[in-house]
Amino acid sequence: MAMAFKMATTGMLVTDECKNSFMDMKWKKDHRYIMFKIDDKSRLVNVEKVGGPGESYDDLAASLPTDDCRYAVFDFDFVTVDNCRKSKIFFIAWSPTASRIRAKMLYATSKDGLRRVLDGISYEVQATDPTEMGIDVIKDKAN
Q: Domain ADF-H spans what residues (predicted)?
């Protein structure tokens, strides 16, 4: 039977698929990004989409809906000024201006519970439009 992790503050449940996909991304580098969606009826946080290792940050940004909220994690690889290869995992709370107030509130109150389940996130970005989560924002935070 699938296991779910309960978020005490909202009653939302995070499916084990969320945690397992995140661990595959973190340790095996199976995914470049994972997008999560809250199902209103079942009150479950589910994996909506995964991006393969060859996909880019632009692919993730293009996948986000313009009128509904989502969570995403992105594995950002970069080279430091000392020429060392590094990887940082970003948590993105996407809450576009055009999304419903109820969805914005639900995602805002459930965010910390999901973050607790996804152990190993380096940085968080909250965005209401694409300019607030551009690749330049990610690069600035990583360095």
A: 10-143
Which tokens go with 79? 């080279």
Contact 30, 36 (CB under 8 A): no
Is CATH 3.40.1390.20 what the domain over 13-142 is classified as, yes or no? no
pTM of the model: 0.90
Residues 6+ apart with CB under 8 A from 64: 35, 70, 72, 94, 96
Query: Cβ(32)–Cβ(54) under 8 Å?
Result: yes
Model pLDDT for residues 57-98, shown as the tens digit of each residue: 999 999 999 999 999 999 999 998 899 999 999 999 999 999
Query: For 125, how many CA atoms within 13 A lie in the half-sphere containing its CB?
Result: 27
Q: Burial letters for 21-57: b for 16+ Cβ neighbours within 10 Å, e otherwise?
A: bbeebbeeeebbbbbbbbeeeebbbebbbbbeeebeb
Q: Where are the domains of the chain?
A: 13-142
> Burial of 106 by CB count in 10 Å (0-12 exposed, 13-18 middle, 19+ buried)?
middle
